[in-house]
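new request in #modeling-help
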Amino acid sequence: MKKVDLTAEHLCYLNFKCCNIETLMESKSPLPQHLSRDISQLGLALRDCARQLRYAARNVPGPIRSDRPLAPRSSSATPLKPPSHLSLESVAHLADDLIETAESFAGHAVPTLQDHWKSPVPLQSLTAYLELSRGPAKTLRKFSMAYYAAAKRMIMQSGAADVLIFEHRICATLEQMGAALSAPQAAAATASRSALCRAGAQLASSLIEMQPIRSTRFEILPDANAPWWLVTEPNAYVFLMLSLTSLAKDTCPSGIPTDPDAAVRFFSDVVGAREAAFRQALKGPEPQHALSQEFEYVITHLC
Amino acid sequence: MGQPICSLEVQELPTWKRVRKLTLCRQLLQQCCDEYGERHALQIEIDDRQFTTAFFAWIEVVERNADYRHQNALDYFQFVFGVLLRDLLREKAIHVKKDASTQLRPSPGNIADWWPTGYVLTYFCIGTLKATVHEQCAVEIQPSDALSQPAVWQSFRENMIEEPGLAIAFFDKFMGLEPNWREPTEISNRPAVAERSSKT
């Protein structure tokens, strides 16, 4: 009896904890919002049903099958009838199987979708991304996938054991930028180097504000491969670096390394060398303007 | 001592413009390292992160003191290339390739082998200074005898470790100018500035 009580308490706790986590968690993939909500609700309802079923099955008083006295086998030729009802224990097992299968499928499906960071990630020019920002939602994923993968690859190569990035937040940033720009404004954004630097600064500061990098885990204190600013403020470090890389593809296409990993290392060094200036720009009263000036300063001295 | 390393060839883009661009400045330094490697059979590598840090620190000084160029262009270039030497040395922008360091048989008499990184960086700054002054001021300058004196190099190396700013003073000495040993990093205290002020 004591064992049953403990299990019931434990299950109640699990149900409660699971529901709360699911409600708070954001999805990692940029599914359309209405679909994402529906799927999430459906999953929650299904899981709750299964858990309630398992909980009920385990808490109905009465002997479980192994306690039952064995019925003497009839020696007659009458065939054994199948049981008219499922035993409570088997229902609980079914519920267990259901949850495990669902979790296993989900676990296998998610990582394969986001493996593209394992290969070098070539970034496009800022103008190419700005053009995407006014296109359909599907094309925006090209930007968010590239930035997601490049960010993850950079952080992992700096010695992180794990990193959690919300790709849809990256996607939403460019989408908002595109929505805010009219066609003439968008054309003006790429008309000169100064205008491009302003657009690059806007992209970087919006990404930093959105905080797409939710967590990084460095098990060993970082050595020279991981600058301390990357460890303490990964969003600032990584998105300044990626925005600068895209910007430089426009402003000095022949001067920077062509290999994607080498380009990331190059701009990582540049951001590191200008860390104090970038920090000051971000903390000032007009961060976007200050950042734009700093971008222009850096770009002027690149190539 | 034979032909010095880092003698820059005249190119379409002026040296002063090239040296103020990160990627082009790195190319010039790489040429020097390669040249040194061919002559001395010792590979010198650029540490990209340290080089980038040194470069941007230097650019700040170049821009902060740009006004002095209008007063005394020759001394302005002399000063800023001295600062470049200081920043590259301070940040350890180059190093001897790890597996090659065992080949070293240092002897103070042979400066190039005794202090490869100091030698390469000093000649890099002399080469870029000479080319810049030639292009921007139409003046030919030559290093002084101090550049071939091991005792000066020994003093340079020892003092530079304690006070990197002294690289600017030693660079002046190598180019035959009177250094300001006390405050070499202050452009307003340069002997050329004091001389000019006393004349006016």
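bot summary: The radius of gyration of chain B is 16 Å.
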